[in-house]
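User: Good morning. I'm curious how coenzyme A would be positioned relative to this chain. Could you predict the structure with it bound?
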Amino acid sequence: MSETILTEIDHGVGIITLNRAERHNAFDDVLIQDLSAALVQMDIDTDVRVVVISSTGKSFCAGADLNWMKRAAGYNAEETQRDALGLASMLRMLNEMKKPTVARVQGPAYGGGVGLVAACDIAIAAFDAQFALTEVRLGIIPAVISPYVIAAIGERKARRYMLTAERFSAAEAYRIGLVHEIVPGEAELDEAVGEIVDALLANGPKALGECKTLIKAVANRPISQEVVIDTAQRIARVRASDEGREGMAAFLEKRKPSWVK
Ligand code: COA
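Assistant: Good morning! Here's the predicted structure, ligand included:
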């Protein structure tokens, strides 16, 4: 049996490639389990500073495997709950990675595929990418992906695309903020992902983790006294850290910081 995912570590970049091209990289229980394990491994591996999620074949990801979903619909209450939690937990793991994550999107990204894109920090798509939240057309709902999709595109746009199940283009995905950049083809996609990865590798590895936690702590909260104090405490702590001291010293001494090779 072929591996459902491929992993590779190259100069600080962990690349996870969905490898079920014959099923358009649809998630079944095995792929979810393998992907979850790879995410955990990449997040603890000190050789990995950035994680790229990509896929083989002509589709990025056709969402949940409908054969698996159909099978799971026959499970008893406890089994079905446990099964659905697998996908929900994997998306949460991706969303909460300490390291920055980049989605490299070509071809269709439907249902859970949109969830995967939304749960990454940065997403870049080729012009041929297509997106759809098709669940209601199948008589189901985009439940476990909804927190990430709504956070990425906002409630108003989610209402339209979750309710109509319409297909939308890479240009529309860019317009509504699901992806950060669109490029003509796969060669440009690799180039654009490479540029983002280089930008990320120039930054303090611990600062990136701290920055991700900061964004989550501050986003969508009123600017209360508690938030103001929290942000001050964060910068006070990080600027006194080894990495903070090294980064500022390197700038003032006109040299590269230790994390830049
Ligand atoms: N689950 C299980 N099988 C899937 C799948 C999915 N999500 N998406 C595609 N496949 C299977 C097809 O059933 C087909 O199987 P077959 O060869 O046994 O007939 C095979 O992959 C090829 O798909 P096909 O539709 O013939 O390819 P295509 O290039 O015309 O279209 C897609 C590709 C991805 C656009 C199309 O298959 C599709 O819309 N899939 C459903 C995606 C979806 O709605 N996902 C959300 C699930 S919640």
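The chain has two domains: 5-201, 205-252. Residues 205-252 form one domain.
Let me know if you'd like a different ligand tried.
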